[in-house]
Design a protein that fits this description.
single chain; 169 residues; alpha+beta; Nuclear Transport Factor 2, Chain: A; 6 strands; 38% helix; 30% strand
Length: 169
């Protein structure tokens, strides 16, 4: 077998394994969260809102999709170029598999700011939070999910900033 065919076979195997790994609903939700972070970093408002249900609500303040779009636009202008850094999201699937909840702790940091130890703490959210401390703008995002025709969409989001001594809820 030629080297080129072996490399193609390995590449196809990697793609197959990656698609199998995402077969669990929790993994699918984590992939949507990863996509959402990427869309936010690119300031893609339409793409972000495409990950939500038609009756999406953002909290606090019960903001609908249009109001949320305006808030995101202002946040993107304020931060300009930024990165979103987060540990593995906590995902809980409801009994019937049509709804789920997820919790994401994340930082929004200016593009050039680095936190070299955070990548190693991806699977350890508590260690990740301890390492971050008060070094950046830290948030907790609670998401309620709905499975619509096989696609996981966000129905409700509650964003809470870190207040120095912890989160309010």
């Amino acid at each position: 077998m030629s080297r080129k065919k072996r490399l193609m076979g390995i590449g196809l195997l990697i793609l197959l394994l990656a698609s199998c790994a995402a077969s669990e609903p929790e993994d699918s939700i984590r992939q949507v969260i990863r996509r959402g972070a990427d869309l936010a970093e690119r300031h893609d408002l339409g793409g972000l809102l495409g990950l939500t249900t038609k009756n999406f609500i953002a909290m606090p303040g019960r903001k609908d999709r249009d109001e949320t779009k305006g808030i995101l636009w202002m946040a993107f202008r304020y931060y300009e170029k930024f990165r979103i850094i987060y540990p593995e999201p906590e995902v809980d699937l409801e009994e019937k598999g049509r709804t789920a909840s997820a919790r994401v702790y994340f930082l929004m940091v200016r593009e050039r700011r680095t936190f070299p130890r955070l990548e190693a703490l991806y699977k350890d959210p508590q260690g990740w939070l301890k390492e971050v401390g008060e070094k950046a703008d830290l948030y907790r995002l609670d998401l309620d999910w709905f499975n619509e025709d096989g696609d996981w969409l966000v129905a409700k989001a509650h964003l809470e900033p870190f207040r120095g001594t912890g989160f309010e809820r």
